[in-house]
């Protein structure tokens, strides 16, 4: 029986290798099978198979090494893709023009609401505040502050989008209705979820799980090193030569994966610090920033649908028409640093 002679897991398949690993006998069972000298036909089929396998040197250690090798490429691909997603999510948050514009609109609106208070000239707020926008109701008791902010962005985006496509001297421009601007702006705002698609993916990840996968991949390589200790000149077959080549390449691959992990976590920490300042409180949940934004995008999508229905009726009033509950806190100070170069269309959209 030339079981695993080449060390190539494809000759057996990962499923069969997993089954074989589960069939591995205990030390006591192994001794009994080796010492059995009776009629082999009187043993059960499983015992007959195991006794035959035990005649192969280091059979189950080979199986464990081969199973690790069979799953290696899949594990590496998953980890590399995960770390790439984290890097892309970090870039999306920092570079999304619309997301930053929305944050600025929230800050301006909060300052208008808080005129005359010690929170009336805020320069920053934490992203957690975004989730509170739907808790602040308008005077009608139905419309929320997020509805107002979304409509403010819609006006701005609709106008800027149309001006790119229409000559300002064109006489037909004056005939473009306000609701046309609104529809164009709404399309831009509803596209934010698409623009932050990697943020949504990153929100579903767990830093501890990813870290454990990397550790497990690195420690699993010891199974290959262990079986290579039994390499002897008198043992025939290509198993050990094949495993030595795999070990060399796998070692280099794991080093690259660890480097990818460090780079990704550094970028996540940087984007968290960019929006939240001190990251010490976020260390227990390093991907929390993505969870906050994902939850906000879910709320935003719902509000955009409602605003779309409202466009045929009345627009929301001014920021001062919203009631602030005793538990509301908008904005939280000294975190997200907004840009000062607001465009003129944003300013003109301010009520």
Automatic annotation (TrEMBL):
One Pfam family it belongs to: FH2
Gene3D superfamilies hit by this protein: Formin, FH2 domain
InterPro entries named in the record: FH2_Formin, FH2_Formin_sf, Formin-like_plant
Top-level lineage group: Eukaryota
One GO MF term: actin filament binding
BP GO terms, sorted: actin nucleation
PROSITE patterns the UniProt entry points to: FH2
Family (UniProt): Belongs to the formin-like family. Class-I subfamily.
Full protein name: Formin-like protein
Organism: Salix brachista
Lineage: Eukaryota, Viridiplantae, Streptophyta, Embryophyta, Tracheophyta
């Amino acid at each position: 029986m030339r079981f695993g002679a080449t060390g190539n897991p494809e000759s057996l398949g990962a499923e069969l290798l997993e089954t074989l690993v589960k069939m591995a006998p205990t030390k006591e069972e192994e001794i009994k099978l080796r010492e059995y000298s009776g009629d082999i036909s009187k043993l059960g089929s499983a015992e007959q198979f195991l006794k035959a396998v035990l005649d192969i040197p280091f059979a189950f250690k080979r199986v464990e090494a081969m199973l690790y090798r069979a799953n290696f490429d899949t594990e590496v691909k998953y980890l590399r893709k995960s770390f790439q997603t984290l890097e892309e999510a970090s870039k999306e948050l920092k570079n999304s023009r619309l997301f930053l514009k929305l944050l600025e609109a929230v800050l301006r609106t909060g300052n208008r609401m808080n005129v005359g208070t010690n929170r009336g000239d805020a320069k920053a707020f934490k992203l957690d505040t975004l989730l509170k926008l739907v808790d602040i109701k308008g005077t009608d008791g139905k419309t929320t502050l997020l509805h107002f902010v979304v409509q403010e962005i819609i006006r701005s985006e609709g106008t800027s989008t149309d001006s790119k496509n229409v000559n300002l001297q064109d006489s037909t421009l004056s005939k473009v209705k306000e609701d046309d601007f609104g529809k164009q702006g709404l399309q831009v705002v509803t596209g934010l979820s698409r623009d932050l698609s990697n943020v949504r993916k990153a929100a579903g990840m767990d830093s501890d799980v990813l870290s454990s996968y990397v550790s497990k991949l690195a420690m699993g390589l010891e199974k290959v090193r262990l079986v290579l200790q039994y390499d002897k000149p008198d043992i025939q077959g290509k198993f050990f030569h094949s495993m030595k080549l795999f070990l060399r390449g796998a070692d280099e691959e794991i080093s690259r994966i660890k480097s990818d992990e460090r780079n990704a976590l550094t970028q996540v920490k940087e984007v968290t610090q960019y929006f939240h300042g001190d990251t010490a409180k976020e260390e227990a949940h390093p991907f929390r920033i993505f969870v906050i934004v994902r939850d906000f995008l879910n709320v935003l999508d719902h509000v955009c649908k409602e605003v779309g229905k409202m466009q045929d009726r009345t627009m929301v009033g001014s920021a001062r028409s919203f009631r602030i509950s005793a538990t509301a806190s908008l904005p939280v100070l000294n975190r997200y640093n907004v840009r000062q170069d607001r465009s003129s269309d944003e300013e003109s959209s301010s009520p």
